[in-house]
Amino acid sequence: MKKSIKKIIAFLIIIDIISYLLLTLIFGYLHIYKNQLNISKVPVLSTINNPNTEIIKTENKGLFYDKFYYLFSEKTTIANDTESIEKFLSEKDISRVLLKDDNSELIGIYQSNSVFLALYKYEYQYQSLKSGNPHPLLYYYYDFYIRDINNIYCKYSGERTEFYNLVAQQQYSKVIPIAAINGDYWGNTNHCMVSERNGGVLRVPSDNQVILSDIGVLYYDGTFETYLPEDFNYNSIIEKNPYQIWDFGPALLDSVGNPYSYYSNQSYDHNVVSQRHPRSVIGYYEPGHYSFMIVDGRTDYSDGLTIYEVADIISKKGCKRAYNLDGGDSTYAWFDNVIIRQNLKRLSQGNARDIYDIVCVGEFEQ
Prior knowledge:
The chain is α+β, with helices and mostly antiparallel strands. It has two domains: 1-40; 49-364, no CATH class. The protein contains eight helices and 17 strands.
């Protein structure tokens, strides 16, 4: 009897030891696996075609509300003609944030409890930086302030589609777009090596992959940084909690907000840098304050701009960082349910450029 009891006790002890070892192994595996995810952020490509993916609304008053509260209003106002704009300006004291550039025309205002946006049109003879000769120029400038980081977001597709399809798609059912421009054409696997949208990873560089392009990163805290290829470190960026990562470029301004004097020929050839084209640019002033610059080009009324020229203009507007997105025939701009810039020649021929992604300013349904 005593021997049987001893055997049972010994058996139970062995079972306890085995159970402890198994639990230790499982816990260790999960801990390592979790850390690996936090460091390398393995891509979740299934999110590309998941219409239920949602941007999560922050449950507080907003990261940037205390700084820009005076620009927001519980009443939503859209002013898109001379009369309504003049009426808005006569009733609201926002003169300190309006741009005072030469040649500017204020053509749109949007104000709500989450977003303040002013849209400007510039049309004039621009003096070439290189030769000093004038050439026709038309561009649009969105200057906007947001209550929280989720008021700027991206819509994207795994396949190329029409610009307006991306604007209208119900990828984020609770977010209402106010303004939108094209993104970085992320689906181009020959160029785009790293991509993150709304905190979800679309493409991760392999360990031995060489990044040749400048990278633009918008972080969850509202800061925006650009990285030259030699400064790019994916794990370091992930540790700082990125919200959007764009891979196109070039970065237009240096660490103090001045235009670069030279853009690498390794990544951006003479045609991209030194020829005039339509351009799409995202600019950064401070957390919560950003801009879009959309340059028309390849037309009788606007030649477009070189990279040097667009960097010169946006730096004079006071941006601290600026990043060039896809341009040329991919350059699109939208505001208040109207596409205000696209390639009209291609549109008339029935072959408007399809794209993969857009960058939006929007707000949550109440």
